[in-house]
Amino acid sequence: MLRSSPAIYRACSSILKRAVKSDSRYYHIFSKRWFELTLVKFQRSLLSNAAIYALANFSVAGVPLILLPILTRYLSADDYGKVGMFTVVSSFLFIIVGFNTHGAVMVRFFDSKIALSKYVSSVFLILLSSVFVTSALIAVFPTPLLSLTTLPVSWLIIAVGLAGCQFLVQLLLTLWQCSDRALSYGVLRLSHAITDSVLSIFLVVGLMASWEGRLSGLAIAWSVIAIFAFIKLRKEGWVSNVVDKKYIADALRYGLPLMPHAVGGLILSMADRLLVTKIMDIGSTGIYFAAVQIGLILGILADASNRAFAPWLMKKLTNASLEEKSTIVYYTYLYFLGIIFVAIILSITIEFFIPFLLGPEFIEVSEITFFMFLGNAFTGMYYMVTNYVFFSTRTGLLSLSTISTGIVAFLISIFLIQNYGLLGAAISFMIGQILLFLTTWALAQYCYRMPWFGLLNKMCKN
């Protein structure tokens, strides 16, 4: 353990050497023991944070899964398809509003030269401007989205507001994540999950409001949490009344090159649902969306692991030695194997629970869950390698890689859905995630060299 972090050990030893002068014999023993305990404590902290992030993200992203047994019995496949389509639209609009600038806050958080409150305020101004412009465009030119989504214009505009609320909440969560405040992160996410669930059940089951009840619960919950997030940002001094043009430009320089990347990622993850609607029907979209929610069991766990891992990796890569890089790569490979194993186990065990999870109209889901789980496993592997591209700030290259992969996956989806229906959609989703992982892994090595293949050769020889 000591050898794996020589730079940290030397720094700690230097401090202890000045503090413990009485007896060098005891100093040497004590310093090494203290350093071992500190590393163990840090590793436990990383794991506990990952557990909190997993629980928090599962509570929110898992709401559709938790509501699945209820919604698939109170909503028809067509109605559930509209819920799924609204989710696709709001995910797309989340990319548009704010222009991905919340990610710039994480990168600049650790820069002592940045006035953080001014930076966050500048990002907030970008958010408000983009929400206003996007809402106006949809109101004036609704036809393209109407024909693509089959949703009313009013719900499309509500989706813009919901995306803005999501961005604002994500801004606060990013700051808490960087501040290592996993518990606060978890409490807020859990509060949101409870609000969303209670409102949706009341509106769908109690008032029989159908798909509009589910979407109303979703919109109200995000609005309430967004108001709280804004108050919290003000109270904790992360938002000021001053914005800075150079900070706006800096945030946009980070976020805008990621737009094609985000769009490409959305094509990879959402195009299958849009194509199912266009090639098949909205009822098939409802069935497919139910399968997506089940597959997200693994996707949520993968996302939570990355949220705990990413800030630690960003700090570690600044002055990482070759030995430290090898250690990171070794454990990343173990993660790859582990997440594929979990995907296979989940796909086998979920078969026994589908009759209890879903209504009789959605039983067809059982035929495609295997590919949904494997696709989410490769998404988790993608998370592990994309961090190196973000660290190198070569986001333009990442955008090029993602959008090209998205286009290829889109064409594959058209062919497979036309010929194999929902099974083809699930297979195309898995293929898209595999392509995304492999291309991003190659790009990550180009942007920031890690001993991926050297360590792999060494492990194979041993």
UniProtKB/TrEMBL annotation:
Keyword Membrane: yes
Xref: InterPro entries: Poly_Biosynth_Transport, Polysacc_synth
Main location class: membrane
Residues passing through the membrane, by range: 50-71, 83-107, 119-141, 153-175, 187-209, 215-233, 254-275, 287-309, 330-356, 368-385, 397-417, 423-444
Coiled coil: none
Keyword presence, Cell wall biogenesis/degradation: no
Gene Ontology CC entries for this record: plasma membrane
Localisation: Cell membrane
Pfam families, per database record: Polysacc_synt (PF01943)
Protein's membrane topology: Multi-pass membrane protein
Keywords, in A-Z order: Cell membrane, Membrane, Transmembrane, Transmembrane helix
Matches recorded under PANTHER family: O-ANTIGEN TRANSPORTER-RELATED (PTHR30250:SF11), PST FAMILY PREDICTED COLANIC ACID TRANSPORTER (PTHR30250)
Protein name: Oligosaccharide flippase family protein
Source organism of this protein record: Sphingorhabdus contaminans
